[in-house]
Amino acid sequence: MDLTDEALIENFRRTENITMFQTLVRRYQSRIYTAAFRILSNSEEAEEVVQDTFLKVHQNISKFRQQASFSSWVFKIAHNQCMDILRNRQRRKGFRLLSFDPQSNKPEPTEEAMEAYSVISQLTDPGADPSQSLELNEQGKMVTDALKQLTDTQRTVVVLHDIEGFQYQEIAEIVGTSIGTVRSRLHYGRIKLKELLEPYFSQQNMSAISR
Amino acid sequence: MSNDFNCKQLEPLLSAYHDGELTEAERADADRHLNGCADCQNRLLEISAVATSLKSLPRLNPKTDVAANIEQLIANQPKGISRIQPPVIWGAAGIAAAAAVLLVAGNFKAVTNQANNPLTANSKTNQVMPKPMPNAVKSQELEIAHNLDTTANPIQDFTEPAQISAHHDQSSAPNGTVSKKEGGMPTQHEKPTTDNNAKKNSKFNPHLQVASNGNEGATNAVATNAVATASGSQSDASAPQLIANRNVGTASIGGADSSLVAIYDTEQRGVTEELGITTDEDGLYAIKL
Asked: When comparing pLDDT for A210 and B152, which is higher?
């Protein structure tokens, strides 16, 4: 029988047998990578998140208290890594926009321009992995592109709930907010996705009816 | 008593309804409304379709098998950590130093009641904790040291500034000790008043003199500047708090009941939060005491 996460941690703390830790990593690396890739839309950064997350887990394993589940704890660390990357992106983006043409007399970029820049930069993300996108069917591509257009906070909650299967309470702990905020972000994230996917859904309905 | 929802009230709860995350009472109300409202039923179906389409996205695998490489990654990690961590330790030490100097400078009387060698006096920790200090302030200052290193005896931290400064000061005695000429201590009968505390501190407190001699590095800068202000602004009655600005080359400490500004800089994110230090968007570091 497979050991639970908590039993693996306990064993690893006691024996320092790296195999125990490797088992934990193997159990979570795909989940962390998938969540990070969905949140960041960049495979290189998602790989970084996976590595850094498990290094942090290893460094702080003595601080893990079993009141929280290991999965929430490890995802909280991964979430923090993702937020750091997103914050750095925002800073770089602001810098790029501001330094685009310092001699120009043109007015500062409007909010619409900023939004458009954000969407374009996400869709033309150099870190997006073409081999991963080839695996997706048409619906998968539509959903993936729609997901990119949510706000970072909505997308994070949607990924944690609908892709990773966390409960509202666990998500609140992972992202450090209230259950009410999780409920709201998830709902309005889904509503936005519904609007973005509406053409696809109605097309599906039409083909279902015509069959 | 039940309070049935209308469409507008139910709409924001539909996702939670779909996920089984409503309270029993909310769910009962939602059920009653949904039974008679085709629009809300359709909205619920749409939400369900979105959730299903997200669940159908495939699980992805990283190119690198982290599990296979984790041992190597861990083995490579300590070097990186040791390069990054010292500034944090020194930053913490700098603040501990400033806090310690504040404690000593603000409580001159207690120091003067000790033996002539102040470092020896400091080692008698329960005696160094000065009686005249208001309890509230004392606990806040202890908390600074405690926050900086929860494993360390906070009182031991109070001996840091003199030792650190002495190590950096080429002219001071080796091993962090202070020569007697710097420590012209007043007799036990002396009772400095509030008005002349500053003068007497700068004259008699060896911690102040050692710190001002050893002005090398950020840690010393903190101690030196902090002392300078501590001895000059004892009457400042603002609330005790510690604010450090990475861009400002000076720092000041008020008296036991005034503000402290110190240099604090580190690139190690996360550790500062553990120390109770936060930054605002202007790069200001703040510690709430």
From this structure: A210
Residue A27 amino acid letter: R
Whether A29 sits inside 8 A of B67 (CB atoms) is yes
Cα(B45)–Cα(B229) distance, integer angstroms = 68
Q: Tell me whether residue B267 is in a domain.
A: yes
Number of domains in chain B: 2
Per-residue pLDDT for A204 more than 80?
no
In a domain? residue B265 = yes
Instruction: Indicate yes or no: pTM above 0.80.
Output: no
A140 or B269: which leads in pLDDT: A140
Q: Is A59 an 8 Å CB contact of chain B?
A: yes
In this structure, the answer to whether residues B169 and B126 fall within a common structural domain is: yes
- Best residue in A16, A25, A62, A182 for a mutation probing chain B (most B CBs within 10 Å): A25
Give the domain extent around B269.
Answer: 86-287
Sign of CA dihedral A85, A91, A97, A103: negative
ipTM here: 0.80
Q: Lowest-confidence range among A108-112, A199-203, B125-129?
A: B125-129
Rounded to whole angstroms, the Cα distance separating A138 from B257 reads 66
Q: Is residue B145 part of a domain?
A: yes
pLDDT category of residue B14 using cuts at 50, 70 and 90: very high
| A-interface mutation test, from B14, B54, B279, most A Cβ less than 10 A away | B54
The two three-digit tokens of residue B251, written as one number: 């720092």
In angstroms, the separation between the Cα of residue B50 and the nearest Cα of chain A is: 6
* Judgement on whether residues B233 and B133 belong to the same structural domain of the protein: yes
